[in-house]
Amino acid sequence: MRLHGDGIKDITMDVPDLDETINGLNRRGGVVKVRNLSTLRTDWGGKLRTGGEVPTYGETVHTLLDLSDYDHNLPPGYQELDASAEPTGLLKFDHIVGNVEEGKMDPPWVNYYIKGMGFNQLISFDDKQISTEYSALRSKVVEYGGRRIIFPINEPALGLKKSQIQEYLDYYNSPGVQHIALLTDNIVKTVSELKRRGGVEFLYTPDSYYDDLEERVGHIGEDIEKLRELRILVDRDEHGYLLQIFTKPIGDRPTFFYEIIQRKGAQSFGGAGNFKALFKSIEEEQRKRGGNL
To answer: For residue 133, how many C-alpha atoms fall within 13 Å in the half-sphere facing its CB?
Structure first.
């Protein structure tokens, strides 16, 4: 906590058969041997098996969780509370993004997931696609199980000033999880409710982004003025379009944040226009902090 501040330590993955998964990882030979295997038996006769600390970038780890003999909707030791808050429409994790040092994206980390863990490469972006006049990044996306698990991995690229990826690495003091994208089926409703409740601050997108929005992305079903009011971004690919917005960092360092995303057919993660808008918003936050842009 003192070294990194608020962040994500463990990205847990559910596996259908822990023994088979570990044997498969060992046969591939690209992953450090899984440690801390354990079995937890429950009062009702079920059991939960875990293989902990499959290492990845920085101090981040993956715990492998086998729930095949665990018939319960809560982890052991947890009790369900009568929560009075209404849901905001968030459904599940869409993707989890990691930041690594320059030159460390591929190899080794993209290769680690592909050759060591059986992932596939989904898409890549270079620093010409994701840049402003000040900063840039390179990114590759790996996925597993038909997009059930999606991990974009970013590295900083040379720019006129310090990129937001390098700032993350400097403040987090190592590679780590940059953000988690949460899927919703109605982003206007979700963001409106999060803003109404307070406590969540979103990055600002300038009005100029919306002036030619339909010319850039084509017809969409949402009211553009409502998107402008909420500062929601839009992008389109060959499969459809998506809507997304990013929070400000949640802790006292400019590191971990959340993304809210709605997919209307699109399978991408936001195109160059959205990345540029995001970068400009982050750069403005850096300027306000007096950061070394």
So the answer is: 0
Q: Tally Cβ neighbours within 10 Å of residue 141.
A: 22
Q: Which of 153, 138, 176, 151 is nearest to 253 (CA)?
A: 176
Element (H, E) at 24: helix 18-28
Three-state secondary structure call for residue 7? coil
Taking CB atoms within 8 Å and a gap of at least 24, the contacts of 165-169 are 165/99, 165/135, 165/137, 166/102, 167/254, 167/286, 167/291, 168/99, 168/254, 168/255, 169/99, 169/101
Q: How confident is the model over 235-268, as pLDDT tens digits?
A: 999 999 999 999 999 999 999 999 999 999 999 8
Which of 20-34, 58-72, 150-164 is most confident? Answer: 58-72
3-class DSSP state of 18: helix
Cα 199 to Cα 194: distance, rounded to the nearest angstrom: 8
Q: Any long-range contacts for 75-83 (C-beta under 8 Å, 24+ apart)?
A: 75/48, 76/40, 76/42, 76/48
